[in-house]
Amino acid sequence: IxxxxxxxxxxxxxxxxxxxxxxxxxxxxKEQNKTLATAESCTGGKIANLITEIxxxxxxxxGSTVTYATESKVDILGIDPLLIEKHSxxxxxxxQAMAVAAKNKFKSDYAVATTGNAGPSKGDSDxxxxxxxxxxATENESFAFKFMMGNHRERVIQKTVNKSFELLQKEIxxxxxx
Length: 178
What we know:
There is one protein chain. The protein has one domain (20-177): CinA-like (Maf protein). It is 44% helix and 18% strand. The chain has 178 residues and is α/β, with parallel strands linked by helices. Helix 2 (21-32) runs parallel beside helix 7 (153-177). The protein has 7 helices and 5 strands. The N and C termini lie far apart (35 Å).
C-alpha cells in the first residue's frame, strides 16, 4: 500500500483527515462566501443530495435541476436544441452549456453539470455506455471534461459524482490560492 500511495499521492483526497470530499467543498464554499448550483442528468440529483445532507449547505448551495430527459435540458435549462442536434446530448458542448445555464439560472458563483450514458443502453445519444461529460462554470470561465467511467451503471454514476466533487474542489482551491 505504501508504494501505491507513492505513485498516486497527488490524487488521493481525504485520506489524511476524516473530512469527506463533499464536507471539504462545503467548508471551502462557506469560507470563501461563494455559491454553487448543479444541473444533473446522468447523476439524477445525487450531487445535490450529498450537498444538502451537509448541515448549513443553504449558506452556499443555491439549487439544482435534474434535467434527465433531453427535452428538459431544452425546456428548463434553455439549451439550444441545435447544439444538441449538432454535438449530441452527451457531449462537451452540452455539459458546458448546462453548467453555464445552471450558474445563470440560480445566480451562483459556480456550477457543475453532468451528462452521460450510464447504461445499460445508449438512450438519446450514440455515446458508448460509460461516456460522461462534466461541465464546470466558474466566475470567469466555463469548460467540460470527458471521462470513460466503465460499463456498470451504479459505478458510472458514483464515479461521476466523485469526479464532479474533485473538479469543484480543484476550482475552488484555485480561487483560494489567488
